[in-house]
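Team,

Forwarding the record for the chain on the shared tracking sheet. I've put the sequence and predicted structure together so nobody has to dig through attachments.
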Amino acid sequence: MQSKSYAVLGKSLVAMYYIDKDLALKKSKELPDDVRKILATPLTQIFIESKDETELPFIAKSVVYGMFLSGQGPTKVMYEKAFKMISKSNNMLAIQNLVEDMVTKGNQYKKFSFDKVVINLMRTIIQEQEKSTNTNKDRNIAIVKEAMTGLL
C-alpha cells in the first residue's frame, strides 16, 4: 500500500479486498481524489463487487472508457455491469456523471459514429428508468434527455 507504483497500489487493494473487504473499502475511500481517478479500474472492481452504490457517481465517470476503450475481457464486462447498475439506479449524480462523459466522448469520437453508440446507451438508461420505481426516475430521464441534445 506504500508503493509509488499505481499499478502495484491498485492490485494491492484488489488483493486486500479478497482478504479483508471492509479494510479494502475503507482504504479505497480514503485515497485522495487524484489517486482514485488513476486507480479507477481496480476501485471500480472493488465497488462493483461489494455493491457499494454510494460510489456510483465515481464509477460513472469511467464507464464509457471501460466499456469501449479498455479492450476486451474482464474489464469490459465489469464496466458493462457498472453501466447496468447505474442505468437502474436512483442516483441522479451517477446518471449525470455518466451522461456527461457520454456527451464528451460521443462528440470527441463523432467521426467514428460514437455519438450514435452513446445515444443508444442513453436510450437504454431511459428504458431502465421508465421500468423502475425510482423516486428520482422522472428527473433521471430528464437528465438523460437533456444530455442527448448535446449530441444532436
